[in-house]
Amino acid sequence: MIKMAFNKNSRRLRIKKGIRRKISGTDSRPRLSVFKSNTGIYAQLVDDLKGHTLAQASSKELGAKNSTISVSKEVGMKLAERAVAKGVSAVVFDRSGYIYHGNVKALADGAREGGLKF
């Protein structure tokens, strides 16, 4: 029996489960996980084997009231800066069920500009 999503959030969570089945973060190549809300965007590097967050960045710490493409790019660059300081250069990108478009794409581009490879 195929389960159908009744709203946008449950659909995203169903897609997220499928993505998480396929990818996992390690110590040498952590998972870059993205979460976005109506007002902010958040990103963190996760080592799934140990269950630790290695670095994180959000639009809230930049003082932004809304999540725009330019703010998302800054968040990606800030996360990359913190990751490179901890010795991480390669990551696995986890878009968490969001479409790779707009803010999610801008965050990924900012992380690439900051020095992360994925």
From TrEMBL:
Keyword entries, A-Z: Ribonucleoprotein, Ribosomal protein, RNA-binding, rRNA-binding
Tagged with keyword Cell division: no
InterPro entries given in the database record: Ribosomal_L18, Ribosomal_uL18_bac-type, Ribosomal_uL18_bac/plant/anim
Keyword Ribonucleoprotein: yes
Superkingdom of origin: Bacteria
Any single Gene Ontology cellular-component annotation: ribosome
Family of the protein in this entry: Belongs to the universal ribosomal protein uL18 family.
Protein task: This is one of the proteins that bind and probably mediate the attachment of the 5S RNA into the large ribosomal subunit, where it forms part of the central protuberance.
Subunit relationships: Part of the 50S ribosomal subunit; part of the 5S rRNA/L5/L18/L25 subcomplex. Contacts the 5S and 23S rRNAs.
Protein known as: Large ribosomal subunit protein uL18
Record organism: Belliella filtrata
Gene name of the encoded protein: rplR
